[in-house]
Design brief:
Blueprint (H helix, E strand, L loop, with lengths): L14 H16 L3 H26 L7 H22 L4 H4 L3 H5 L5 H28 L9 H13 L4 H21 L6 H17 L5 H17 L2 H7 L11 H32 L12 E3 L35 H10 L4 E5 L5 E6 H10 L10 H4 L4 E3 L6 H9 L2 H4 L16 H7 L7 E6 L2 E7 H8 L8 E4 L4 E4 L1
Parallel strand pairs: 1-4
Antiparallel strand pairs: 2-3, 5-6, 7-8
Helix pairs in contact: 2-3, 2-6, 2-10, 3-9, 6-10, 7-10, 8-9, 8-12, 10-12, 16-19
Length: 487
């Protein structure tokens, strides 16, 4: 399973490509440092709590509105929570269970997955508790003459009256929809599209009364806090008493709701969605990088005015057909040792069919070490770390096409949209703009003919081929007093 994904040439994703994106999403969760995971989880706990505040506000005082319409309006309001998580950034337990895909792909261990879940769960609870403290301190339960708080009490109490099997099943149904909402976001890179994608699945689970463990971390403790802390004036205003809500306590919350709902959320998200799609789209071996992810540098329509000296020089005349390559199943430590021994910064990764599947570099190792707090997981392979966004060339491409690729970033030199509309202006000449550019291009390029790996070309190879333009090679001779350059 590839570890990254780029849209195909049509700008759309097909279901199998969405599976690849989900695999990358799952693996990425394991690469974040603990402090980042917990911080993002706290933010997600706050976001979901904010969504429930919105839900309570929208559904309060709707006695004259139809039951379904009122709950649908509340569901639309609650979708704000997942939108904030997806767009703003957050680690939500109910979507983090999709990391089961990384376990199925043998990219992380089962223990590592449970560690991720535990960190996110604790962070979500902390975030929900912090928001709860603010809401109670602000006295929000007294809004609308106390009807806001009464609505919150009734919602919280209702959540404790499910039988364990009911709570478990409602948890499955809830996270089936939450993870499907997240799954839908894999089909687009546009933020507005992602936001719209999550609205209806979330609105359905909320309006239907399905159970979400992180939402309940805020909602039920809110009811408990109101039952314990609300002043007598509140109870007089709403015509109720604390005794009517005596079952709102921590023990009932944990045993009657949180535990069965959490287990149901795991089954619904990790089992039905994550592992369900994985079972459908999983592949028995690492495939070649799809054509949509290998970007050729040049097309047949590219025409250049080139010097007579290099008019006929093509890649197949100077590429390295014996370049060192790696294989995806190779352990990271062995691959790194081989690169260091050969003084290489990276190497192409090919499978048993001589197809390019990725590129593994020193940079990938450094990123992995940083993400793992310099305590890397045992058993990692090249396939776990390698990049799969590949830029390739053909053996028929010319030397000067390669030289221009390394020298010039055309989108920066000629900043226009696809319609030819200029996106920025400069008083500098073309040559000055070219000299001011700071570009990063892959130093090593795989040569691919008929989808098969045939060699590599490096930036050094290109410069070596162009060296003759400067004339004959000069030899530096060092004397005792000075350095003399002689032919």
């Amino acid at each position: 399973m590839s570890a990254n994904l780029s849209p195909n040439t049509s700008g759309q994703f097909n279901p199998s490509e969405m599976m690849d994106q989900a695999a990358y999403y799952a693996l990425a969760k394991s690469k974040k440092p603990t402090s980042m995971v917990i911080g993002l989880a706290i933010m997600a706990g706050v976001f979901i709590g904010i969504a429930f505040i919105f839900y309570i506000t929208v559904t309060t005082g709707n006695a004259q509105t139809g039951w379904g319409i009122s709950r649908f309006a509340g569901g639309l309001a609650f979708s704000l929570g997942l939108i904030l998580v997806v767009i703003g950034g957050g680690e939500l337990f109910t979507s983090s269970v999709l990391s089961a895909i990384a376990v199925a792909n043998k990219q992380i261990s089962f223990g590592k997955m449970l560690g991720i879940w535990g960190k996110v769960y604790i962070g979500n609870f902390i975030g929900a508790t912090l928001l709860l403290a603010l809401v109670v301190s602000a006295g929000m339960y007294q809004n609308d003459g106390g009807q806001w708080g009464l609505n919150a009490l009734n919602i919280a109490q209702h959540k404790l009256h499910h039988q364990p099997l009911e709570a478990f099943a409602l948890g499955i149904l809830c996270n089936l929809l939450v993870c499907l909402a997240v799954w839908l976001t894999f089909c687009s890179t546009n933020m507005l599209t992602k936001a719209i994608m999550v609205i209806l699945p979330v609105a359905m689970f909320v309006s239907s009364g399905f159970e979400h463990c992180v939402a309940n971390m805020f909602m039920v403790p809110l009811g408990i806090a109101i039952q314990q802390l609300a002043p007598p004036e509140f109870w007089l205003a709403v015509g109720a008493s604390p005794e009517q809500y005596a079952d709102l306590n921590i023990i009932n919350f944990i045993t009657a709701n949180l535990i069965p709902v959490t287990l149901g959320n795991i089954v619904g998200g990790a089992g039905l969605v994550g592992l369900g799609y994985w079972a459908i789209f999983s592949r028995p071996q690492l495939n070649a990088v799809p054509a949509s992810q290998i970007t050729p540098l040049f097309t047949d329509s590219d025409t250049k005015e080139i010097t007579e000296m290099n008019a006929n020089k093509t890649v197949n005349q100077f590429m390295d057909i014996n370049a060192y390559v790696l294989h995806p199943e190779m352990p990271v430590e062995i691959a790194l040792d081989n690169l260091l021994d050969r003084h290489l910064s990276g190497a192409i990764v090919i499978n048993s069919h001589n197809e390019v599947v990725g590129f593994f570099s020193e940079h990938d190792v450094l990123v992995e070490l940083w993400c793992e707090d310099y305590l890397p997981e045992k058993g990692r392979t090249v396939a776990d770390l390698m990049k799969t966004d590949i830029t390739s060339i053909s053996s028929k491409d010319t030397l000067l096409q390669l030289a221009e690729f390394y020298a010039i970033d055309k989108p920066k030199l000629y900043p226009t949209t696809d319609m030819g509309i200029a996106t920025s202006y400069s008083t500098l000449s073309i040559n000055d703009r070219a000299r001011d550019m700071r570009i990063a291009k892959p130093r090593i390029l795989p040569v691919i003919d008929d989808n098969k790996f045939v060699g590599v070309v490096t930036r050094e190879d290109v410069v070596t081929q162009l060296r003759a333009i400067y004339g004959e090679r000069m030899q530096a001779v060092k004397t005792e007093e000075t350095d003399a350059i002689v032919a």
